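Archive entry: two folds, one per protein. Generate the first.
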Amino acid sequence: MDNNNKNTANIGIVVHGPEIIDSGCAKMIFDLLNDFNHNSTKIKTMAKLGGTIGRVAVIDNNLETTIDISEKLVPSESLKKLNNCNDILFLINYGKSKETGHTFGKIVVERSNIKNKTVIQIERPKEKDGTILIWNTPKNDFENKLINYLSNKLNLPIENCISNGLTIWEEHNNIYRELHGVDKGEAIMLNGIVVGRAIGAPVILVSNNNKLINIINGEIKWHGVEKLGEIDLKKVIIKTGILRRHPSNINKNKKNNKGYEYDLSSKGEVIIVNHAGEDVLEEIKNKKVSAVITIGDDTTTICGDILARFDIKIIGITDGDRDDILKNPIITEGSNIFLIKNCKDDDVGEMLEEKLKDKNMTYIDTLNYIKEILNKNKIDYGIDEY
């Protein structure tokens, strides 16, 4: 409890992923916490996003004043930050399945190394197999009453974790990591880059000397592996399937948000994003940007969808190997997407980075300059104008 006010309980909430937000569950949980009353103790909540894809869902659902999205943090980092100034911690998530949700919670809590404070995980709250998990034993009557109150209000049982957490082992100098809850045909992303697709089960990633070398029961995408570079299979951020399953309330034209300055008609910085498109807001923040060039089909899909919220046009460089990672992605009208026909989009991206480095141009001048570069180098292409 707050040392300055014994009648105040400070509660820190880590919100993970878009589904818990798009489903309305995050707001519902906030409301339930604010309504809870025990021995006249007031609740003061502080929420932080854990992960990056959920940021767009926060924007679309107008929750920027409720959920802090100012920092790019993995869930365990968010939990550690909130641990410093709160009495009780929450982790709210909507995993693809009960198993993946429990596995996620166990990994996050173990990585956060929080052992002196109760962490309450609310998992898949609108599903029949939804649960409440308690990490670390509740320390007082208030915490027990709060847990039972949420269990009753959400109609969720309090259960033990069914997962052993990270499934990883070493054999013959290779490191193996098994993925849980991956369906056949789903894309596999490591650190924001698509590196393959599931073709069976169980899906097992294999690395040697910090390089991904195989996906057992998966089809590897070497193009993505090249972009990925060195990884630590114990720490790499893994996502599978559709990144945002139920997008709703798409909130466009938020271009006046603090930190984003974008003007098509005047000269500005030319930003090139060639991987991890979900981080594009970091790339453009506090810069005067005139053109955003995205390299790769998946990067273009993700960046285009995110930047459409701010009415920002993109110039995409693709070669037609797009994966299904977003449901019904949108793109700002006036954007131009190049389809490269006789070489890889990465090769064109390297060429453009070299030519456009430190350039200040308008959007139209950038577009025309790219056409000039491609024509000079005899690169065959088509353009989709949106």
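Generate the second and append.
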Amino acid sequence: MAPSSTQRIEPPIGAGELAEATARVSPDQMKEAAQLPAVSVEAVAVTAGATLREAAPWLRRLGQWLLSLLALYAAGWLLWSAAPALTPFVIGLVLAYLLMPIVDRLAQRMPRWLAILLVYIGGIGLLAGAIGFIIPPAVDQVQQLFASIPDADRLLKMWNNLVQEYRALVPDSLQQPIEQGIRSALQTAQTNLAVYLQGVGAFIFNQVLNVLNTLTFLIGFLIIPIWLFYVLNDHAQAAVLVDRLLPPRARPDFWNIWGLADEVFSDYIRGQLLLGLAVGTMVGLGLLLLRLLGFDVRYILLLAIIAGITELIPIIGPIIGAIPGVLIGFFGGEGGLQAGLAVLVVYIVVQQLENNLLVPRIIGESVGVHPAILTVILIAMGQVFGLLGVVLAAPLTAIARDLFVYVYQRLDGLSPAAARRAISAAGPAKQAAATPG
């Protein structure tokens, strides 16, 4: 066996050289070299934040969007859960839309708080006048209407008299198609009336029960004047606060979208209330004219109020408001067929004046949705959201349309100001598209 050879490991530096190099270093130099540099927590955080912004900007943007969506979801959930108790504040917002232009105009000549107080005094005066001159006669007419509801024998007699007048006045050649159409309409109404009335009755009962059983609802009505005062007085400061909370890049888009919704809602609410007042006045004057001409027309004030209130429901509201008047015209007095037809003519004339004169001038381009499309949306919104969906179908549809156009223009590369101008420029086209014929 061959003897094993041992390998010798030589150090990289000799012992003498190491000692000599160590001797040349002073103790102060060794102490200074041993000290580590101090690193603060703030410097590490700043460095990490800068690295995160440079390495993954989309992650920071995603966090901002998630935080904003979470805040919107929480606010929406809270508002939806407390919806019955917030009804007074919804009424307060409607009043704010109505009173804000008046307050702004008066605030140009006096302090804003004084302008609000003057508007409050005027509103209280109008309310007192309504309570003193309108509500008592309307209540009396309601009582008279319920007291005059005939029994079964009287209804049968009235129906026989109406049929005799119909047979005597209408030619035989026209009676058959008219009777066939009436039978078809009665069958359809009989099929759908029970379900519709059941749904309406259940909705009204539930809403009234929720309102009466909610203490916060009553408290809300008590604080509406104070809350409305702050809304009217401090809306500019609230806008500044919201603007500060928004990211700078999101401010133009947010205020453009807010302006679109605010413009549609304010114009629509004011327009619908003015239309209701105008239609109620015209119906009242028309029925009063019939009475002066010798027709037996009763409950004029009550029918005018019903026509004005139902005008708030788009498309089908005037039809709903005309039904009680026509029925009372046919069956509520001694005029019979002639009085009923005269009342029907009044409602038709008012409807034509509204569609051709009032709606284009009062509502203008605030909605701009064709009646055929709006009718379908009314049915869908009523099916899903009930009576509130029917009332809000028109403005929500207009807002959804403008919002879609705005987002589409922004995604197409337009600036926020250019996208907003594009929607404003499309106003006449929307109004023309909304006018049938």
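Annotation attached to the second fold: DSSP finds 18 helices and no strands in the chain. The chain has a mean pLDDT of 76.
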